[in-house]
């Protein structure tokens, strides 16, 4: 049965300050049981803490994250250098899914570098499949740029046929496509979905005052950029009931709430509001095992 959970990336500063155990305890108290791990250092201390939370708190790990490569000296584990470690972490946390948050920027330089990435990531997808683990690619909006009349995401599907996908609904919307139709088009290769809302923000008084004073640069920064915000599920413009229904119909196993920024609001309050909206839509049984029917 598919489950709804949260992306731990939102809580990375809390993990840094309080430790993974305290954060996962709070996650459980907020009414969630499933998490996806991203931007949390996979130190032995953190992995052991997650492992303990799996046993003691009933936390389920939807997926962990990986990179194909990283800058020299960064110290970040990669599939290139630490393939076996990623497999070990997945098994310790009881997940059969690894996801890549984004292709390296170098892949965007030319058709050749893009093709090199596609070949590389498809190889990792095949190696992980042999270990019983799927590899999914998470989109942003840049993958909807067209080269030769076709989006990069379309080309990636063709050139990396063993890769699976994590579709982020906010970035689909920001990329100019419809999330529901996009999820339908990924039927059969969809493992993960990010439930991230898309909000149009009203201009602040400061922005309007700047425009009236002739400061057109400040207004342009709002109009061309910050007018679009990340939002709590249900507080933006996306119609979540048909989107989630389509995600489930297309085979998604985990749907993760994610909000890149909260604009000064406490993240725990934002998570609680997102959960409340999903419960109101009838999805509580996907969030809490005790509510399953």
Task: Please explain how this structure is put together.
This protein folds into two domains: 3-196 and 233-291, Alpha-Beta Barrel (TIM Barrel), CATH 3.20.20; 198-229, no CATH class. The chain has 13 helices and twelve strands. It has helices at 12-18, 20-29, 44-56, 79-93, 111-129, 152-159, 169-174, 179-185, 205-212, 216-226, 240-249, 267-280, 284-287, and strands spanning 3-7, 34-36, 60-66, 97-100, 134-138, 146-147, 150-151, 164-168, 190-195, 197-200, 228-231, 254-257. An eight-stranded parallel beta barrel has the order 1-2-3-4-5-8-9-12, surrounded by four helices. Strands 6-7 form a two-stranded antiparallel ribbon. Strand 2 (34-36), helix 3 and strand 3 (60-66) form a beta-alpha-beta unit. The mean pLDDT is 97.
Task: Give me some keywords for this one.
293 residues; alpha/beta; TIM Barrel; 2 domains; two-stranded antiparallel ribbon
Q: Superfamily at the CATH H level of the largest domain? A: Divalent-metal-dependent TIM barrel enzymes
Give the averaged pLDDT, no decimals: 97
Portion in beta strands:
15-25%
| SSE class | alpha/beta
Outline, from the CA principal axes?
Answer: globular
Oligomer: single chain
Radius of gyration computed on alpha carbons = 19 Å
CATH topology of the largest domain: TIM Barrel
What's the N-to-C terminus distance?
Answer: 11 Å
Share of helical residues: 40-55%
Count of individual beta strands:
12
State the strand order across the main sheet: 1-2-3-4-5-8-9-12
């Amino acid at each position: 049965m598919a489950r709804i959970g949260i992306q731990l990336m939102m809580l990375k500063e809390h993990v840094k300050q309080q430790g993974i155990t305290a954060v996962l305890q709070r996650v459980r108290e907020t009414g969630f049981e499933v998490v996806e791990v991203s931007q949390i250092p996979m130190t032995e201390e953190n992995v052991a803490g997650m492992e303990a939370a799996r046993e003691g708190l009933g936390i389920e790990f939807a997926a962990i994250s990986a990179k194909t490569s990283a800058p020299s000296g960064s110290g970040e584990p990669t599939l290139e250098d630490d393939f076996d470690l990623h497999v070990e972490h997945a098994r310790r946390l009881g997940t059969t899914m690894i996801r890549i948050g984004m292709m390296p920027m170098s892949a965007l330089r030319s058709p050749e570098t893009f093709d090199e990435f596609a070949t590389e990531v498809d190889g990792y997808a095949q190696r992980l499949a042999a270990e019983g683990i799927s590899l999914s690619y998470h989109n942003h909006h840049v993958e909807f740029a067209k080269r030769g009349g076709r989006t990069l995401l379309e080309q990636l599907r063709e050139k990396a046929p063993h890769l699976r996908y994590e579709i982020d609904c906010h970035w689909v919307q920001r990329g100019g496509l419809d999330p529901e139709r996009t999820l339908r088009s990924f039927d059969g290769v969809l493992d993960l979905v990010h439930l991230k809302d898309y909000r149009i923000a009203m201009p602040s008084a400061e922005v309007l005052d700047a425009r009236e004073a002739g400061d057109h640069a400040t207004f342009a920064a709002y109009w061309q950029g910050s007018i679009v915000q990340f939002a709590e599920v249900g507080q933006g413009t996306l119609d979540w009931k048909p989107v989630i229904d389509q995600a489930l119909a297309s085979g998604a196993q985990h749907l993760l709430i994610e909000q890149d920024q909260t604009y000064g609001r406490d993240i725990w309050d934002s998570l609680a509001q997102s959960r409340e909206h999903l419960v109101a839509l009838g999805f509580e049984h996907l969030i809490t095992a005790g509510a399953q029917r």
